[in-house]
Design brief:
The structure is a single chain. The protein has helices at about 15-30, 30-35, 70-75, 90-100, 110-125, 140-150, 165-175, 180-190, 200, 205-220, 235-245, 310-330, 365-375, 410-420; strands spanning about 5-15, 40-45, 65, 80, 105, 130, 155-160, 230, 250-260, 265-275, 285-295, 300-305, 345, 350-360, 380-385, 395-405, 425-435. With about 450 residues, it is an alpha/beta fold. It has 3 domains: about 5-140 and about 310-330, NAD(P)-binding Rossmann-like Domain (Rossmann fold, 3-Layer(aba) Sandwich), CATH 3.40.50; about 145-305, 2-Layer Sandwich (Dihydrodipicolinate Reductase, domain 2), CATH 3.30.360; about 350-435, ACT domain (Alpha-Beta Plaits). The strands form 2 sheets. Strands 7, 8, 9, 10, 11, 12, 13, 14, 15, 16 and 17 form an 11-stranded mixed β-sheet that branches. Strand 11 and strand 12 form a beta hairpin. It is elongated. Bound molecules: L-homoserine. L-homoserine binds next to helix 7.
């Protein structure tokens, strides 16, 4: 860092929803940031796809470019902020900037989940720091919490509501009974969804974040193929209503934990029933919450806005403040030694939880006994059974079972037999039930 007063010269790649928020809020709180970091945080170059596009932030035309390479090659840029999204171009951008010896701030969970191992290694080799607070849970400082505040802990488990769009949609379905598509359109309108909202609703945005949390907690970058991810596309208003009547709420839940009894790690994302008296069930709308259990601290809970322009730009700016302080103090890659390395991912078939199973069954004697016979043979206990009295005679009626803890493999095998029964329709729903106790 040269010159006086001290400056952090920022090259911003991407001026979409979050990029515009970073630009706007750096100006809004410029004085505060200067006082706190000892440096002026100044955007000196901005790379955009279309310089003529109308935006709600006023960026001087002379600092706009259509090529992110200019940011990387510019000796006047100290730190590159990658907010272009996607994987391939973003990887190219981040790795080029690190190779050029620049600090990098990214909010891109997809590129970290897919290529994080290489990028972290490159950051270490180049002694160029890589910051990623905005990649998980929007405005919640969960990366710093796990890396810094909980550094003295082995992490036992993390349960997180880590996709604001899905949580917004499920909340609207639960509270207002409005349809999935309508709720998704609202989330897009509010700027919560990804450029490609498929990643929000198919669970992979949360899956990417879970992979990053697993790396921070257990020291290993899991390959996306090792992570089980189910989104909320198939959650119906019927299941939302049954869950509530049974004392639960459906949330898209990310689970990152040490598998009980062995040294494997379990990382999965799925719409799950969680007890209505658990604090996570009250996390509504775009809010995220991450419950982290450490072996020293016990239970902690981090809550806040999980998406949106201002919340996410707050996280990017916190990384820029770190970058400024490290630059002033001549600190390069700060490095990070995660907690242990548990080596292997637990196969999905071995993951254990309770289950909610909704079937459509013929309303005739003996059907329940046939189903109970199959679950019994597979050693799966039935916790409760609900069969609402039909308002009018119907050939098929819903039958909902809550199952005791069992492995996914056992439940899948039993379900295949159940669906083969003549009295059971193909249409069904199988969701996890999480007690969140360990
Ligand atoms: N689309 C993401 C979400 C943005 O809804 O959570 C924050 O990562």
């Amino acid at each position: 860092m040269d010159g006086s007063p001290k400056q952090l010269r920022i090259g911003l790649a991407g001026l979409g929803n979050v990029g515009a928020g970073v630009f706007k809020n750096l100006l809004k709180n410029a004085e505060l940031l200067h006082e706190r970091t000892g440096a002026e945080l100044r955007v000196v170059r901005v790379a955009v796809r279309d310089p003529d596009r109308k935006r709600d932030v006023d960026v001087p035309a002379e600092i706009l470019t259509t090529s992110w390479r200019e940011l990387v090659d510019d000796p006047e840029v100290d730190v590159v902020v990658e907010l272009i999204g996607g994987v391939d171009d973003a990887f190219e951008l981040i790795s080029s900037a690190l190779r050029a010896g620049k600090a990098v701030v990214t909010g891109n969970k997809a590129v970290l989940a897919e290529r994080g191992k290489e990028l972290v290694q490159l950051s270490e080799e180049q002694n160029a720091p890589l910051y990623c607070e905005a990649a998980v849970a929007g405005g919640i400082p969960i990366i710093k919490a796990v890396k810094e505040a909980l550094v003295g802990n082995h992490i036992d488990s993390i349960y997180g509501i880590i996709n604001g769009t899905s949580n917004y949609i499920l909340t609207r379905m639960t509270a207002e009974g409005i349809a999935f598509e309508e709720a998704l359109a609202e989330a897009q309108e509010k700027g919560y969804a990804e450029a490609d909202p498929a990643l929000d609703v198919n669970g992979w945005d949360a899956g990417h974040k879970a992979i990053i949390l697993a790396w921070l907690s257990y020291g290993r970058w899991l390959h996306p193929d090792e992570v089980s991810v189910t989104g909320i596309e198939d959650v119906s208003l019927t299941d939302v209503a049954f869950a509530i009547s049974l004392g639960y709420e459906i949330k898209l839940l990310g689970v990152v934990r040490k598998a009980p009894g062995n040294e494997r790690i379990e990382v999965r994302v799925a719409p799950s029933l969680i007890p209505r008296d658990h604090i996570l069930s009250s996390v509504d709308g775009v809010f995220n919450a991450v419950a982290v259990r450490g072996d020293v601290v016990g239970e902690t809970l981090f809550y806040g806005s999980g998406a949106g322009q201002d919340a996410t730009s707050s996280a990017v700016i916190s990384d820029l403040a770190d970058a400024a302080e490290n630059l002033i103090n001549g600190v390069g890659c700060t490095g990070f030694v995660p907690h242990g390395d548990f080596g292997q991912a637990l196969p999905l078939a071995d993951t254990v939880s309770g289950y909610y199973l909704r079937l459509g069954v013929a309303d005739q004697p003996g059907v329940l006994a046939q189903i109970a016979n199959i679950t019994g043979r597979h050693g799966i206990g039935i916790l409760s059974v609900v069969q609402p009295e039909p308002e009018a005679p119907a050939a098929h009626i819903p039958l909902v079972l809550l199952l005791h803890d069992a492995s996914q493999g056992t439940v899948d095998a039993a379900l295949a037999e159940i669906l083969d029964l003549g009295a059971v329709q193909a249409d069904h729903a199988l969701l996890r039930v999480e007690s969140l106790k360990s």
